[in-house]
Amino acid sequence: MSHEPKWVGWARELQAVAQTGLHFTESDYDRERYQKILDISIDVFANYSDETPTVIQGLFDNQAGYATPKVDVRGVVFRDGKLLLVQERSDELWTLPGGWADVNDSPSEAVEREVEEESGFQAKVERVLAIFDRSKHAHKPPFPFHVYKLFMLCRLEGGEARTTMETMGVDFFAENDLPPLSISRVTHEQIQFCFAAPKNPDSPCRFD
User: How far apart are CA 98 and CA 116, in angstroms?
Assistant: First the structure.
């Protein structure tokens, strides 16, 4: 069940159809039709969100080829029962360290790199906790692309708190003393799930 308004799914699917069609078509006539579908998707996103058509167009211009979900990775790192969170400069809210997976990184490499880059701590992935579909969770605001979110439990290896160009705060928090969360990146339910995960080491990976 999706937590997003229906228009988000419709507009996202229009964008995916247009992107894939523009990649494969050899017909100028079809290219014109697919571009029109893409323009409609841009208008829908711009009309129902706070972004301008120029911003949405810029996001879509960076996409090419067959449309597939984007992959977001998040590291779940504990110290003395407290969870590592970073404060994003973009919204001054807190989230699990992570971001988009890079080409040529395995999932574990992507998580370990993001944890170190965003927090200053080194961590080693131990197991996959969840593969979430962003649209099926209470993230806000809606995102133009379909996103899979990989949550991985990591063992703290070393390092020290360090802010970066993307983060302005790094700290460990108890479950009953959480800072304001960046709901676009992580929900309260997902944070509760992270705290429960170490207590259930044999539990299967969650999905969707």
Answer: 9
Mean pLDDT over residues 29-37, rounded? 94
Position 160 pLDDT exceeds 90 = yes
Q: If you search the block for the tokens 């099926």, which residue do you land on?
A: 136
User: What is the reported pLDDT for 138?
Assistant: 96
SS (H, E, C) the chain: CCCCCHHHHHHHHHHHHHHHHHHHCCCHHHHHHHHHHHHHHHHHHHHHCCCCHHHHHHHHHCCCCCCCCEEEEEEEEEECCEEEEEEECCCCCEECCEEECCCCCCHHHHHHHHHHHHHCEEEEEEEEEEEEEHHHCCCCCCCCCCEEEEEEEEEEEEECCCCCCCEEEEEEECCCCCCCECCCCCCHHHHHHHHHHHHCCCCCCEEC
In this prediction, residue 13 has a pLDDT band, given cuts at 50, 70 and 90, of very high
Amino acid at 153: L
Query: Span 180-187, mean pLDDT?
Result: 98
Cα–Cα dist 39/36, whole Å = 5
Q: Which two tokens stand for residue 203?
A: 């539990």
Q: Tokens standing for 116?
A: 């170190």
- Number of Cβ within 10 Å of residue 124's Cβ equals 13
